[in-house]
Amino acid sequence: MLKNNYLEISQVGIEFPTSGEPFRALQNVNLAIAKGEFISLIGHSGCGKSTVLNIVAGLYSATEGGVILQGREVDEPGPDRAVVFQNHALMPWLTVYQNVELAVKCVFKKTKSKIEIREWIEHNLSLVHMDHAIDKLPGELSGGMKQRVGIARCLAMQPKVLLMDEPFGALDALTRAHLQDSLMEIQQQLGNTVIMITHDVDEAVLLSDRIVMMTNGPAASIGEVLSIDLPRPRNRVVLADDPEFNHYRQQVLRFLYEKQKNPADRKATAA
Amino acid sequence: MSATPMPKTALPKTIQFRELLSVATLRLLIDKIIKMLALPGLGILVFLFLWQLLANNIITSLGQFPGPSQVWEQSKSLVSEHQRERNKETAFYERQEIRNAKKIVADPNAVVKIRSYTGKATFLDQIVTSLLTVAFGFMVATLVAVPLGILCGLSESLYRAVNPIIQTFKPVSPLAWLPLVTMVVSALYISDDPMFDKAFLTSAFTVALCCLWPTVVNTIVGVASIDRDLINVSRVLRLGSLVHIQKIVIPSAIPLIFTGLRLSLATGWMVLIAAEMLAQNPGLGKFIWDEFQNGSSNSLGRIMVAVLAIGIIGFILDSLMLALQKYLSWDKQATLR
Fold it and tell me: pTM, whole model, 2 decimals?
């Protein structure tokens, strides 16, 4: 098997039923992802980035084409494809520990002892620097902290692919930077395969091995794929002045603002 | 010389500060007292005054409409009647015991009969009966309504199938159900040694039929409006249906389930009084009806006592539910009222 064929999205298209004609959101989406690769999906809002992610997660099923993960077709959601949601999606009635525990027990109930489970939860919370708030309820945490717990919950499931749906979109710039650094560090350490949706160009260039740029919908598809060959570990401050980094940024910006003008802008100029 | 004034000026300052602090806390305390006691107290006083004013101007065939003072007199007499009745009861059992003991002394093989006291049910007895009935009816309704609501909330198809039935039965008055329930209980509940009185079951099931709906409807809404992300988390984790309901659905829906339960209990309590009145089943409703039929000069006062008792008990029941909701709710910051 080719190294690149860890996760394969082939000929994926999807239609959503509406009251009139069915709405075609995606068409001919093809992408092969290697183990340990960090992929960003970028595009204007409404272009179907989230739909791609949801199909990989198994939360939506594709109308045509399919997703193959390690030689097996994806046909339902499962803990091997953990999803980090934009708004953390923590159970507000469970403590930080219990939230992670719910996921860990689903995955490791048969293979880990009680003590191992406890240690594993604590280990994952310390990975995201949340071991100090283990018995707090989500309502007592800031947005960034909640998202850290959300990430810990997914890491603790040891997924084959970590799916992140605009994980830092709801956070302020400083918190976002902290979390991006944490994520880079963890990914470096654990070698997770990650698909992340973003609309932040800097975030995409800083974190990714490849940036997948999507065309505007309806019937959106993959426009271009850009490989980011910057050495790791990457430092945001150093890279801010790096010509290569800025060149990558420019390529993404050019795709987004010249080749694929924002559909909202296009309407505005037409009017 | 120049260094000495320092402590002199510093000392009054601290005192001033402390005084300021105590004035502030005192003001807060006064504020609290006004909010918690004075305002409700004022409201009650105004109400009593208006009541007395109106009562003085209404003359019925059973005499003047009772004002607060007559009602207070009647409530005292109802309590003393209850005590008298209890004394009679203990006296009855004492006499019976002595009689039986004598019998056994005279003839060791004698068969002694133990009869239970059959005195008139007092106002307080009727309150207890009503409370037990509403508790039983409400419990039956909850046991049906919450699971039904959860199932309908989870399954759109089931909801579509069941909703017309819910909407049809929801507005039905308890009095319409009562004859049917009475006949069905008489027909189906046949036992030589019945655990419950038939009248008790009739009232309780009528209550249950009427107080089912608010809980069903609110539970459906609560379950159907669970955050999509949380449902997706559950799907990703592949939680089984029971775990999903236990860990995600019930905690999410608990605020609305409780809203439903509180509405149901209030409805149940109202329905019960009507049912007892119509069916002559023991309870506060029967007490009111009996007093009305009795038609003495005290009757209206005694009915008014019952009216107030019904209101206050309803208020207490709701407060108990609110306390339970606060205890069970995970969101301790939420203002519940």
Answer: 0.82
